[in-house]
């Protein structure tokens, strides 16, 4: 059993929930994923090999994984909630392309330190960061430049 499974099973036990086969499948696929994913993409992946896992189950399992501390909702992108694994990740900020949905991760320690000292002035305790920006990735902005020129 791997670390994620242990954490998830502990959480389920505490909440009087069972570690069902669909939950196991969802957990494994979440942790085989690249760091960011949305629920629809995850569901498509699951359906490829597991026809018996329903969309409703996938949607209902997301909040459980969030509450167990294994994943977090990282940002909203193209009207979809994006999740990411929190296991071995540093804080980072997201640059999100509004056109193609590409997500670029950038180290945010400098910004975070700045935010921490700003928060301190207000005696504010920071629990989590969600910093980022939306715009166009290089590919999409090049494409747009060409379109406006022609
Ligand atoms: Zn783009
Ligand atoms: Zn991220």
Could you list some keywords that capture this structure?
single chain; 150 residues; alpha+beta; Arc Repressor Mutant, subunit A; Dna Ligase, domain 1; 2 domains; 6 helices; 47% helix; flat; binds zinc ion
Number of domains: 2
CATH topology of the largest domain: Arc Repressor Mutant, subunit A
Task: Report the mean per-residue pLDDT as an integer.
Answer: 88
> What are the low-pLDDT stretches, counting only 5+ consecutive residues below 50?
none
Task: Give the strand tally.
Answer: 6
Given helix and strand content, the structural type is: alpha+beta
For the termini, the CA-CA separation is 58 Å
Strand order, sheet with most strands: 1-3-2
Using only CA atoms, what is the Rg?
18 Å
CATH class of the largest domain: Mainly Alpha
- Measured by DSSP, the beta-strand proportion falls in 15-25%
What CATH architecture of the largest domain would you give?
Orthogonal Bundle
Query: What is the assigned CATH homologous superfamily of the largest domain?
Result: Winged helix-like DNA-binding domain superfamily/Winged helix DNA-binding domain
Number of helices: 6
Secondary-structure element series: HHEHHEEEEHEH
Describe this structure in words.
This protein has 150 residues and is α+β, with helices and mostly antiparallel strands. It folds into 2 domains: 87 residues, Arc Repressor Mutant, subunit A, CATH 1.10.10.10; 61 residues, Dna Ligase, domain 1. It is built from 6 helices and 6 strands. The strands form 2 sheets. A 3-stranded antiparallel β-sheet has the order 1-3-2. It has a 3-stranded mixed β-sheet with strand order 5-4-6, with no helix packed on it. Helix 3 packs across helix 4. The mean pLDDT is 88. The site of one zinc ion has 7 residues, from strand 4.
């Amino acid at each position: 059993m791997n670390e994620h499974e242990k954490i998830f099973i502990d959480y389920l036990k505490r909440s009087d929930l069972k570690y069902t086969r669909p939950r196991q499948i969802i957990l494994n696929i979440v942790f085989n994923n690249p760091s960011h994913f949305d629920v629809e993409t995850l569901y498509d992946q699951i359906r490829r090999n597991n026809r018996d896992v329903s969309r409703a189950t996938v949607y209902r399992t997301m909040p459980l994984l969030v509450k167990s501390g294994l994943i977090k909702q990282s940002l909203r992108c193209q009207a979809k909630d994006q999740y990411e694994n929190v296991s071995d990740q540093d804080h980072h900020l997201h640059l999100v392309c509004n056109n193609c949905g590409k997500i670029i991760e950038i180290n945010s320690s400098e910004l975070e330190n700045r935010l921490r000292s700003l928060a301190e002035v207000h005696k504010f305790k920071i629990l989590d960061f969600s910093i980022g920006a939306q715009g166009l990735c290089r590919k999409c902005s090049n494409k747009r430049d060409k379109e406006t020129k022609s």
